[in-house]
Amino acid sequence: MHKRTAIVTIMFILLFVVLVTGYYFLNVQKAHEKFTLGQNLTEEQKQEAISIALKDSKVKSEIGNNKYNITGVEVLGIGTESSNITYYPTVMIRLGDDPSFGRGIFAYVDLYNRTVADIGNPYYGPIPVKNSTT
Amino acid sequence: MLKHKAIAFGAIFVAAIILLAAPVIVLSKDTAQADSTSSLGFTPNHTVDKYTDIAKVDPDVLKPGYIDPITKQAREMKAKGINDSEIIKEFEKQGIIYYPDSDSWVKGRCLTKDEMKEKKIIFPVYDYNDKGMYLKAIYYGENDTMVNVSEQKPSVTTQAAITSIGQINVWVETTDPYKFAYLGWGGHIIPGSEAADISGTEWHFVTTHLGSSGSCTELGVYRSESDSVLTVYSYDNRVEPGHPLYTGTTPIHPAPSSDNGAIIIVTGTWESGSIPGYVYYLYWNGQQFRRGHLTSLYNQINQANEAIPGSDDTHYSVDSQHAIFYGQSVYKTLDSSGNYAVYGWVNNANTPSRVSGDWLPMKQVTSYGYTPYSYVHESWVQSQN
Q1: Are residues A63 and A85 in the same domain?
Q2: HSE, side-chain direction, 13 A CA sphere, residue B215
Q3: At B18, which helix (H) or strand (E)?
Q4: Is residue A21 part of a domain?
C-alpha cells in the first residue's frame, strides 16, 4: 500500500515536472527569442506589438494630445553603443499636426514581458508621395 | 516507507534543479547580437575644434542683449521707416532670407519653382481618419496647387493602419532622465557621400536636430537625386512647415570627406514675434548663418543619417563614403536665464544616450570615449544585394 502510494506520488511529481518544465522552457525560449535585424514579423506579432505600445504609459505620455500615425512595425535595435544593441519588434509612430515632417516615437517592444523595453525619438523627413504626377 | 519518501524527495529535488537550471541554460544561449565591425579609419581634424565651441566661435552670443549684425541692420532699416518688402529685397541682394514678422533670418536663398520641380520638392498635405493618415493634396510651392488628390486612403496592411513611408535612418540621441535638458550642441560632421540618384535614394540627409515638442531646428548636409554636390541646409519646423528646403538652402557645398565644425545654440533671450521663442543661432565652420526661435531652453538632441527612397519605396543608393559624427559637446541648461554647463557627449550620468541599431540597408557603428570625451557615430548605406 505504501509502496503503491509512493509510486503514484512519484508519477504525479514527474508528470508535474514534465508539464511545468515544458511550459517553462517554451515560454522562456519565447521570452528570449532572439529577434534579428530584418526578421519578418507575423501579423499577430505586429498587432501584439502595436497593442502593447499604445497601452504603455510612456508612449501615451509622449503622444499626448498629438495626432499620430503608425508607419510600420519592424525589427529594429536600440542600445547605448554598437556592441550592446538589442533588436525588438518596433512600433514606429509619427507624431504631430504636420505629418509631412515631424518627430517620431519608436517603441521597442518586449513581446514576452508585454512591455515597452525602450523608446527612441527619430525625426521624419518629408514623406515621398507615391504615384504622383511628378 | 523511508525509502519511498527518499525517492519522492529525490524526484522533487531533481525537478527543482531542472527548473532552476532551465532559464540559465536558455539565457546563456541568448547573447545580444552586435555588429562590432568598425571601419573607423579617419583622422580627427583638431583644427576644426575651434568651430565646435561657442566660447571660441562667438563668445558674445550668449550675453544678455546680444544682437547679431544682420538683425541690427534690419532693425535700423525698420527704424528709418523702410517697409518690410524693401528690407527683404535688400537682404536678398546679400544672400540672406529675412523674415520680418519673426525678426529672424537665414543665409541662403529660396529655391525657384523650377528648382523645386527638378528636385521634386512637393508639399504633400496629409490628414487623418479612423484608418490612419491619408494623402489629401499635393502642392508645388506655397500656393501653386498642382494636383488635388481625392482622399486616397492609406493602404491598410494590418488591423491597425500602417502607412509605409520608406524612410530609413540611424541615429544617436539624448535620452531619459535628461532627454530634454540642453540648449546647445557643437561637434564635427563628415557628411560622407550621401548617395542619391534617380534609381535609388531620392533624398539623403546627415543632420543634427535640437528641439522639444512642437519646436525644432536642424542643421545638416543633404543631397537630392538631382544634385551632383552636397549642400549645407538648415530647417525650422515653424518657419518652413512642409519641407526643409523651401528656404534655407545655402551656397555651402562641403566635400564628402570634409571635416566640418557645427554649432546649434539657444540663448536666454525671449522674443515674442510671430514665431515666439528663445533666440537661437546656427554656425557652420565658425560662420553664423541662421537666427530663429525655439520654444524651450530644454531640448533633446538627435544626430541622424536619413535616406528617403524614390517612388518605388524599396531601393536605396549605395554610399561610397561613410558619414561620421564625432567630437560632440552638449550645453546643458542650468536655469531659465540660459546659463549652461558644457559636457562631452559620452553617454554617462550627465549625457545619457541611446543609439539605434542598423536599419538595413543602412548600417552604423557607434562607440564612446573618443577624442577624448565624445562618441563616434559612423553610418552608411550598403548594397542591398
Answers
A1: yes
A2: 18
A3: helix B2-29
A4: yes
Distance (Å) of CA A56 to CA A65, A108, B4: 15, 11, 52
Domain carrying residue A17: 1-32
Taking phi over 0 as left and psi of -120 to 50 as alpha, with beta for the rest, B108 belongs to left
Give yes or no for A23 touching B (CB within 8 A).
no
| Pick among B150, B222, B294, B359 to test the A interface (most A CBs inside 10 A) | B359
* Residue of B159, B242, B302 with shortest CB distance to A101: B242
**Alpha carbon distances (Å) from B243 to A102, B128, B148:** 10, 19, 18
Which pLDDT tens digit goes with each residue over B99-138? 898 899 999 877 776 777 777 666 666 666 666 666 666 6
- The CATH number linked to A47 is 3.10.450
Is residue A66 situated within a structural domain? Answer: yes
| ipTM reported for the complex, 2 dp | 0.77
Task: Tell whether A56 and A24 lie within a shared domain.
Answer: no
pLDDT tens-digit map of A30-82: 555 689 988 999 999 999 999 999 999 999 998 888 888 888 899 999 998 88
| Same domain membership, residue A96 and residue A63 | yes
Domains of chain B, residue spans: 51-57+165-381
Question: Is A64 domain-assigned?
Answer: yes
Cα dihedral value B250, B256, B261, B263, nearest 10: 50
Tell me the per-residue pLDDT of B285-339, one tens digit each, with 9 for 90 and over. Answer: 999 989 999 999 999 999 999 998 876 667 899 999 999 999 999 999 998 888 8
In CATH, which of 1.10.8, 2.60.120, 2.40.30, 3.30.1490 is domain B51-57+165-381?
2.60.120
Asked if A28 and A47 sit in the same domain, the reply is no
Co-location of A23 and A50 in the same domain: no
Q: Is A86 on the interface with B (CB under 8 A)?
A: yes
User: B183: part of which helix (H) or strand (E)?
Assistant: strand B182-190
Distance CA(B117)–CA(B134), nearest Å, equals 23
- Cβ(B51)–Cβ(B288) under 8 Å? no
Q: Cβ contacts (< 8 Å) between B29 and chain A: which residues?
A: 32
- Which residues in chain A have their CB less than 8 angstroms from residue B367's CB? 81-83
Mutate to test the interface with B, among A121, A124, A131, A133 (most CBs of B within 10 A): A121
Give the distance from residue B24's alpha carbon to the nearest chain A alpha carbon, in angstroms. Answer: 10
Sign of CA dihedral B307, B310, B316, B319: negative
Asked if A101 lies within 8 A of B241 by C-beta distance, the reply is yes
The overall pTM is greater than 0.90: no
Say if the Cβ atoms of B158 and A128 lie within 8 Å: no
CA dist., res. B370 & res. B363, Å (int): 20
